[in-house]
Every structure is written in C-alpha cells, then in structure tokens.
Amino acid sequence: MSSSKEMFDLNDPIIESDEQKSFSDEVCESHDNKKPFLDEVWGSLFPQENDLKQSTRTNNRRKIVFCDVCEQSFANNSNLKQHMLTHTGEKPYSCEICHTSFSKKSNLEQHIRTHTGEKPYKCDDCGNTFAIRSTLLRHMNVHRGEKPYSCTICNKSFSYKIHLNRHIRTHTGEKPYSCEICDQCFSDENNLKQHVRTHTGEKPYCCGVCGASFARNFVLTRHMKIHSGEKPYSCDLCSKSFSNKSHLKRHIQMHTGAKPYSCLICNQCFADDNTLKLHVRKHTGERPFCCEICKNSFARKSHLQSHMKISHADGTPNSCAICNKSFSSKSNLAQHIKAHTG
Question: What is the 3 state secondary structure string of the chain?
C-alpha cells in the first residue's frame, strides 16, 4: 500500500516492526544459544524440535487479529493499534532535538541515536558496533560468508542488498542521483554525497592526531597510516613497502615501465592518472588551487602551498597600497611600487 525506499545507506536507521524486533532479538541470541528450529509463522527460535512443536500447538490457540485496511495479521490488539498509525498518518512521538515525528516510540528511540551517536549493538566476532539491530544482522552475513543477494544478470552474489542494487546499475547504466549544483549524475547516493563536498568544501572526517580533515573516510583511514607507520603493501620485486595500494601500483610501474595513461591532446603517456591530470592542465590552462589572500591561482596544490609559505607567511596580502593590485611575491610588489614612485 505504501512504497518503500529501495536504496539505503548502511548507517541509515532501518525501522523494524515489533514482530521483526522480536525475531531479530532471537536470531542474535541464536548465535550464542544454538536455536536452529524456527517457527515460520511467529518467527520464534527454539533449541529443540520438541520445543518448536509445543510452541506451534500453543500458537495455534492464540487469537489473530486483522487490519481492516490492508488485512495484515497481528498477534494482539495492541500491535494492531500500533499498526493503524501507519494508515492514519498519526505521529505522536517527536524528537526534542530536531522535532522529527514518528508513529512508534521505538522508531523515535532509534532516531535519537543519530544525534547521540549511541551504537548499542555489538558484533561478537569483530567488535564493530551498530545503532540498529537489523544492521548488525546484515553485518553478520559477512562473518558467516553468506551472500543471499544474487544478480539475475551475471549471478554474482552479495552479503548486502544495497551492494546488489549498486552492482545492478553497472549493468543498466542507471544514475538516479543528481547533483543540484552542477547536475552531474551518480549511480550511488554515497558517491553523490562525497561529490557535493567538492562544492561545499565540507571535510567531516578529522584526524585525532594532527587535526587534518578529509572529505572521505577512506582518505582519513589512509592518512592515519602515516602516524602509525603501517605499510601493509609490499613490492614483490624490491620489497619496498607503502601505506596505500595506489602508491604500490605507481611504484610497480617504475619497474615495468608501463605508462597506461595517455593524453588525448598530445598523446604523451604517463605511469599514473594523477600525473596525466596535472599534464592536461598545461593544455587547458586550468588552475583550480586559488590563494584566498591575493587570489592568484595555481595548477598544483603544492605550488599553492609554496606560494603561501613564501608570499603570505605573516598572513598578509602582497597588495599595492596605491592601486590595490596584488602580487604573488613581495619582490614583485616592490618592483611594482617603483612604477608609482619613479
């Protein structure tokens, strides 16, 4: 009757019904308590088959009530009453922080964790914690090696449905997520979020050691290896080690002499794509790194950094007091002033 959002972020809250919560709790317990017998009607788990049979006989005597709107069944009137709120649209539970409203108190409690950062559900295998029980259950598929979601096109399997949905778009070419600023489209919502940060300058991932901030979490993870000294990627040819895989790949090309990246303008070839990008700016004249003090721009970030150290070490612009023209260095400014003073 109501549509559900097909895609979701792994960190987004996934709201569970009362029945799903009960089932999820018992599934979690089953990992420790060995409860392999499932009551497919009520979702309960039992350690012995006789326990399941006894429960089935008891449940057959339980009263089942039905929703008059959608005919969904419930174990009692209390659950039915809670369910009816989804039809009436009533949301009596409101968040005191952002005032978002919910039809269930349990949904509100899960939502509040997005503000507090609380993650009460812990994986016993790896120690990862989660805000939502269902996210933990999906995560357990990774440890069990289960991949229940299969692509009908190429039969590749995935532990998470979100990964399957993302994969299917590699077949269809669908890019449903569009940037409101530049209209660039993306196949994945997370890629769109990361792209938008290139416009806003937002860098939410901060290093606790040196304070450096980053737009992407994986860049922070890679950066942390600088502090830890960890270099897990080793060259098989010379045993030199690197903190990230891309640096290893670039290094190996020094041994092989491979230059797979070619300039479409002059056909010059390069060992890595970053060097190619820098080269292309010579053709296009692009200077994306701009000095906020004197507004001079540079093709390379390292050139901007050098400029800041040489020209603005004291934080002041090299601008002419007579005509307000700015210069990249103090020596150029001094030469310019002579034009005024003679």
Answer: CCCCCCCCCCCCCCCCCHHHHHHHHHHHHHHHHCCCEECCCCCCEECCHHHHHHHHHHHHCCCCEECCCCCCEECCHHHHHHHHHHHHCCCCEECCCCCCEECCHHHHHHHHHHHHCCCCEECCCCCCEECCHHHHHHHHHHHHCCCCEECCCCCCEECCHHHHHHHHHHHHCCCCEECCCCCCEECCHHHHHHHHHHHHCCCCEECCCCCCEECCHHHHHHHHHHHHCCCCEECCCCCCEECCHHHHHHHHHHHHCCCCEECCCCCCEECCHHHHHHHHHHHHCCCCEECCCCCCEECCHHHHHHHHHHHCCCCCCCECCCCCCECCCHHHHHHHHHHHHC
